[in-house]
């Protein structure tokens, strides 16, 4: 005995209905107007997707900051070890070359510490900006639908224009691979 199989659903709620064998191409056209989805449902889905995208972009930014911080800390540690080896030598036994190398290491460490300070400041600035965005979004969601006026990012004037730090510009430029630092 043959069992009747139901056609695959592929994520749909209803089984797929195939057009009759003699149907023309115009019978195969599916219109979005045939859907029971409302505009509010679509806008809600788009809002959720946009929110998820925003969260992922924020997380990516956090991870980049963390990666840059780890790299800076590793480099600082490496230079400190090298400097400690030079400092361990008695002062009267050091050559001019070793003294010069010691001074260069101190300057390099100082530069990296300053860079890391910029990074920490930039991370804090991003957190404050994100907190402000979250506050604005919460206020937006609490207002009744009739009062909501959706504006693009370019049209928003509630937040003051903030200049970017050098570290942010450098990050956007090439992801901290510049020889500027």
What can you tell me about this protein's structure?
This protein has 181 residues and is an all-alpha fold. Helix content is 59%, strand content 0%. It contains three helices and no strands. The chain has helices at residues 39-88, 96-142, 166-174. The longest helix is centred in the middle third of the chain and has 50 residues, at 39-88. The N and C termini lie far apart (77 Å).
Describe the main β-sheet briefly: none
Class per helix and strand makeup? mainly alpha
- Our measurement of the CA-to-CA distance between the termini, rounded to an integer number of angstroms, reads 77 Å
Helicity range: 55-70%
Summarize the structure.
The protein has 181 residues and is mainly alpha-helical. It has helices at 39-88, 96-142, 166-174. The chain contains 3 helices and no strands.
Please give the structural blueprint:
Elements: H1 39-88, H2 96-142, H3 166-174
Helix pairs in contact: 1-2
Features:
181 residues, single chain, mainly alpha, disordered C terminus, elongated
């Amino acid at each position: 005995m043959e069992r009747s199989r139901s056609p695959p659903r592929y994520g749909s709620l209803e089984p797929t209905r195939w057009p009759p064998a003699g149907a023309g191409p115009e019978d195969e056209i599916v219109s979005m107007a045939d859907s029971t989805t409302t505009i509010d449902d679509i806008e809600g889905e788009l809002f959720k997707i946009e929110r998820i995208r925003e969260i992922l972009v924020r997380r990516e930014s956090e991870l980049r900051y963390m990666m840059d911080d780890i790299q800076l800390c590793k480099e600082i540690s490496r230079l400190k070890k090298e400097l400690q080896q030079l400092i361990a030598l008695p002062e009267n036994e050091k050559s001019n070359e070793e003294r010069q190398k010691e001074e260069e290491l101190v300057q390099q460490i100082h530069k990296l510490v300053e860079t890391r300070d910029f990074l920490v400041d930039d991370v804090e600035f991003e957190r404050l900006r994100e907190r402000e965005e979250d506050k604005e979004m919460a206020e937006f969601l609490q207002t009744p639908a009739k009062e909501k006026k959706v504006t693009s990012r370019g049209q928003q004037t509630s937040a003051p224009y903030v200049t970017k730090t050098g570290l942010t510009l450098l990050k956007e430029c090439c992801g901290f691979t510049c020889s500027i630092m």
